[in-house]
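Case study 2.
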Amino acid sequence: MFVIGAGALGSLLGGLLAQKGEKVVFFDRNGDKRNAIEDQGGVVIAGPKGEVLAPATAVSFPLPQEKEPVLLCVKAQDILPCLQNLNAYIERDQPICILANGMGWQEEAAQICVSGNLCFGLTYQGAHLLAPGRVAHAGSGDTILYGYTAIQEAAASFWAQHIKGAFAVRVEKQFQKTLWEKLLINAVINPLTALGDIENGQLPLVQDIVPVMLGLLREGMEVAGKCGVDFSLVTMMDKTVQVCADTAGNTSSMRADVLRGHKTEIDYLNGYIVKMGQKFGIKTPLQEQMVVRIKEISA
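Prediction:
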């Protein structure tokens, strides 16, 4: 199996698959990450029981001409450029699964990906890259696979069987509510931890932050409702706080990007809510504020 992206999530999931016995080959455009994986013979996963070396190798493009499954674990803003580079090296029926936060990129990815054997996913696994080739397992949670078409649903089932035993995974056919729930939670935790430069677990403890969290949820829920997905504010706030607790020591992906001076996935989180709000004539001032403020402090 090829794992594209040796960042926090890719390193963790690829490492867990390698521990299960999967032959994992990483690709990352960052030479330091590739070299670290090659030098130590795999990825080091730091968890509650200590550190474990998950055996793996690393390569750079061009990928070998093999029909190995490809797990794409890059940030939402990097998916389309990555697929454009990957298209030259994959077959039309090669199994590909893209795991990423946010909404809006799925349709674009399906349009440009050469392979029709494609599905998507989201995960509640918490990961923090300690150094190239070293990742902290900062919280466990389900990985949910889905597809918009019958072919994509079949691909999701294939991947669920392939992943089974490495980490908790399931296929959901009625996935829109799951997507929106994850989006609403991420649109609170990611920008606020990035702006506050704090770990996830600290967020609910910040003075006067609860009204902001509730405001972001209210705006997002109103937009979701127009898309046919309804939520309870109390339930969503409870779930958001629970995710903060479950990943207490984790650095959100957006905070990590800001700290490294990288472009963030804000356009596919809060930006997507703003875009859909405009479509339905719904004002989302707090969501807009998050987009503006994150873009001011990131690349």
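The chain has two domains: 2-171, 176-297.
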